[in-house]
Amino acid sequence: MKMWRSTCVTLALLILDPAVCLTGPLLPRIAGGVDTVKGVWPWMASLHTQSHFCGGSLISSEWVLSAAHCFFSNSKFDVQVHKLKVYLGMWTQEMQHNSNVIQSDVRSIHTHNAYDEKTFDNDIALVRLSSPTSAYSPVLLAAQGSVIPSGTLSWITGWGQTASKGFFGMRPKDLPAPQILQQAVISVVDNVQCHDLLKNKRRYTRITVNMICAGIPAGGVDTYCGDSGGPLMHRYDSQWVQSGITSFGYGCAKRNTPGVYTRVSQYQQWITDIIRNQQSQNFPRFVNFPLPSAGQSSVVG
């Protein structure tokens, strides 16, 4: 199974917001992925204005987690709340192939006040739905202090662009009809190693403590344009826990070029504070991951 960093998923006929695809080095798509089974990722959200432009994850009955860069263009917040729709229970981007889809209006959008459009540090956002829903199960979140060891298997999902064949020198393709949600398996890359792999890339800044890297050494699996904001997830006992948010990458599914994700565990307090300040009682559930083995490298930052 192959997938690409910022979700390089092949999405045909899907018009993506060019601002989401062109900001920064090269933003997410899922490449090398496979079709998901309907209903297997019940918390997966599709964010629309005129069409799908980013992913997200339902983390409680009225809150969706996504990436801050999804809502900015040329350093300006440019997504109008009244034009944003969130779709839950969506399997494909062609409505006639979906059943039990919930379309929700949005009450508010909250991006991190320290989000840096140049470095993608603090690339996190919360979207409050117009009303709570109990139709779909939310995903659990990695708690503050959690450390995901290098090599941990991780799942990525999205409706973003993919590449049709070959690993190198290929152009991303839109996900072909009926634009089924894609999934793939990659593994966590230690932040120090990730820095070493990416430091010579054009426009590279740094890997911070607020980021987590994941990919496949041989390439061929990644996320891409349209996958931004979607989850990086791990199986923990009998549950799924989200530890990352698709943020940015350099190229698509290239060899020794992991994708970069927002590290969710760094933002437990921020998420909790936003929800509390909005006088909402619908908080997500956080799960503590075990500490890494002795000798695990610390993050760069």
UniProtKB/TrEMBL annotation:
| Superkingdom classification of source | Eukaryota
- Signal peptide residues on this chain, from the entry's feature table: 1-23
Q: Which UniProt keywords apply?
A: Disulfide bond, Hydrolase, Protease, Serine protease, Signal
- Kindly provide the name given to this protein in its UniProt entry: Peptidase S1 domain-containing protein
Organism annotation: Cirrhinus molitorella
PROSITE patterns given in the database record: TRYPSIN_DOM, TRYPSIN_HIS, TRYPSIN_SER
Which SMART domains is this protein grouped with? Tryp_SPc
> Pfam families from the entry?
Trypsin
